[in-house]
Amino acid sequence: MPNIYFILFEVVIYIQFALCFHHALKRGAPNLLKLIAGTTFGVLLELATIRQLNAYQYGRFMLMVLDVPLCIGVAWSSIIYAVMEFSDGSNLPYFTRPVLDGLLALNIDLAMDTIAIRLGFWDWGQGLNFQYFGVPYANFWAWFWVVSSFSFGYRLVALHSDWIGKWLPSFFGIIIGLLCVMFTNAFITFIIPFDYHTLTIAPVLISALFVVIVSRPRFYQTPIDTLAFWVPFLSHFYLLTAGLISGVILDPPALLSIALSMFVLALILHKPSIQHIFLREPK
Fold first, then answer.
1. Per residue in 216-246, is it b (16+ CB within 10 Å) or e — as a string?
2. What would the pLDDT profile of 266-281 be if each residue is shown by its tens digit?
3. Domain span at residue 209?
4. 3-class secondary-structure state, position 247
5. Using an 8 Å Cβ cutoff, are 216 and 91 in contact?
6. Which pTM was predicted?
7. Distances (CA, A) of 110 to 36, 66, 88, 118, 232
8. DSSP codes of every residue in 196-216
9. How far apart are CA 90 and CA 235, in angstroms?
10. d(Cα 196, Cα 198) in Å, to the nearest integer?
11. Number of domains in the chain
12. What is the phi/psi pair of residue 223, to 5°?
């Protein structure tokens, strides 16, 4: 019998993608290309990473591309699309926005990965007491670079007002994203000794947060579509609900505290969208 948690996980991801697709249709070809490129990028990076590192494996979902669930590639696309929509509505310097994009993605994964492995969505093969409740610290390093590198590659040429800025950003996002992910994967796995992973990863992520904070960002400076809220909301809400119903979020209880903290942080960041949705106030 199909695992209901797997099925609902896929359904939530495809709902997120549908929201992004609806938004992209309204914005025209460049946005559609970005969304399609994000999915291509997501599937390719997963296929490449599994073969490069042999560090994890996925459970069996309904739609698979070799040994990678299609929904994972779609999830990467939706997350990248949503966080870039959010950061583009801020006053952050243009090339600081990829840093924020990577950190926003971590807001989702810090809550998601520990629950996902307990539900069997994927397996790191290290047991549930390894490093971050069963998740290698290097995973968060990877999440940051996956999202920020695609965002940077895309933005590198997106400012051009000619055909380059219209048709090439998605291509640059895929190529630069894949090159960066493969390099950073190899760097943290094969160059940095395992005992020094924390001393490498923590300063990079803390520095990224510092760069954003010292920029004194103000969000919602320009209108932001509510999909930027719905993508993280649906992720957090589903994993919280599935974790509570299955009980895995209480093994250990700290997982519940972390998941709630990340959820509350997302709600705070997206307060104007929440007001717009539920109170019908302007963004």
1. ebebbeeebbbbbbbbbbbbbebbbebbeee
2. 999 999 999 988 876 4
3. 4-279
4. coil
5. no
6. 0.96
7. 26, 27, 23, 14, 12
8. GHHHHHHHHHHHHHHHHHHT-
9. 22
10. 6
11. 1
12. -55, 135
